[in-house]
């Protein structure tokens, strides 16, 4: 239970895995036994336990399913030990440092002389993507270099800084990753890769 400290801010105590104070301005993950874990430690194993979002039929509200919330403290600790090797295997499999899988696209026209915004939704399989990153679009027999124009994570109202919301990270679905480049083709099933 969060208590206010002498500075009047909510103090959630130290994270049991890294010892850092858990910041109540961030979304706090609670394990099945009530253990509260800091955002950085959750990020380390997120790639093994991807976050899922969906909307119920006819409902506007986004639902969220976090498989990490089903883990016990011991299971979380075991996952942290396994995570580096898991990530290495993914890097070896794809031969890249970061991979984002495009699931859907929407084109937004910008006027006569300017290429449209290609707004993709999808999920970061592993690694990190930031706005401005030079990446590659990969589909069978074809690849093109492109710069990331914008990023926003999918969310169901979770708290987080703007920098956090606007970074694509392994295991997290994106509300959008936007590109705008002349003659660029991107479609569902394409991979956006980095490094
Ligand atoms: Zn931690």
Structure characterization notes:
With 195 residues, this protein is α+β, with helices and mostly antiparallel strands. It has helices spanning 39-46, 73-94, 162-165; strands at residues 3-4, 10-14, 21-23, 29-30, 36-37, 52-55, 62-65, 98-108, 117-126, 128-130, 134-139, 142-147, 150-153, 167-169, 173-179, 191-194. It has a seven-stranded antiparallel beta sheet. Strand 11 (134-139) and strand 12 (142-147) form a beta hairpin. The chain is globular, with a radius of gyration of 19 Å. The model has no long low-confidence stretch (mean pLDDT 92). Bound molecules: zinc ion (ZN).
CATH architecture of the largest domain: Beta Barrel
Strand ordering within the main sheet: 12-11-16-8-9-15-13
Name given to the CATH homologous superfamily of the largest domain: Translation factors
Mean pLDDT score:
92
Give the distinct bound molecules: zinc ion
Please compute the radius of gyration using only Cα atoms: 19 Å
CATH class of the largest domain: Mainly Beta
| Biggest beta sheet attributes | 7 strands, antiparallel
Q: Which descriptors apply to this entry?
A:
195 residues; alpha+beta; Elongation Factor Tu (Ef-tu), domain 3; 2 domains; 7-stranded antiparallel beta sheet; 3-stranded antiparallel beta sheet; 3 helices; 16 strands; 17% helix; binds zinc ion
